[in-house]
Amino acid sequence: MSSAADTGLFDRLVAQAVPFVPGPLVRRLGAPYVAGITLSEALELVRRLREQGLQTTVDILGEDVADRQAALAAADAYLATLDALAEGGLPTNVSLKPSGLGSGLSWELAGEQIERIVTHAERLGAFVRIDMEDATTTDATLALYRALRSAGHESLGIVLQARLWRTERDVEALADLVPNVRLCKGIYLEPPQIALQDRDAIRRNYSRLLRRRGEELHPLVVCQRDGDGNPGDDLVLLLVLRVLLKHGGDGAPLV
Fold this sequence. Notes:
Strands 1-2-3-4-5-6 form a 6-stranded parallel sheet. It has 255 residues and is of the alpha/beta class. Helix 4 packs parallel to helix 5 (107-124) and helix 8 (199-216) packs parallel to helix 9. It has helices at residues 4-17, 23-30, 39-51, 68-87, 107-124, 138-150, 167-174, 199-216, 231-247; strands at residues 58-59, 93-96, 127-130, 156-161, 180-184, 220-222. The chain has a domain at 35-131. It contains 9 helices and 6 strands, in the order H-H-H-E-H-E-H-E-H-E-H-E-H-E-H. 51% of the residues lie in helices and 9% in strands. The radius of gyration is 18 Å and the shape is globular.
């Protein structure tokens, strides 16, 4: 049995404790989720995963840059990563957070950097996905995504979070773009008026949104990180993956 307290109190305690955890321990705990400290380490892992027949996307970790120069440097790092992936014959897919490219300073600045990255990616035949962050940024992130798509950038995807009450409306609002969506449950701790708090309710909403996207045959990426062996989740994933495999996912990267 789960409750709002399951998601709320424990997660808040963990989040508040992270800044006090020694760096080496954080690296050890994060090792299963982080491809490497350096680009070469990440490329090696991408290579090994490709040999196993898996798709990959590379995300350069980091949020809330301090100034314009840091935002420019972050964008340059993405350009270098795309070049390295292409030169190595590896899947050229990257994911990025607007905050890591300056949205905390100016959404115009972040938009400029993301368009630099997307334009470069298009020259390489690569794909870029804009990650979703906390709920205070959702409107601006979706507006940026729409603006970039309207400017003709097709090799671009977005992330939506099943935890948020608003997500079904966002799916409807984006329908005219036929967006490539990665649907995740959402890791940001949001208040009850913004987000579902009960884990089972989040799963049910996730399932419902997956089924809807699958039935509409729009490009869809499944992001499932619970790892709790919930059989209902497994059945939903199988259902949607069957739809994607049958219709080819519109040829879009499943990352």
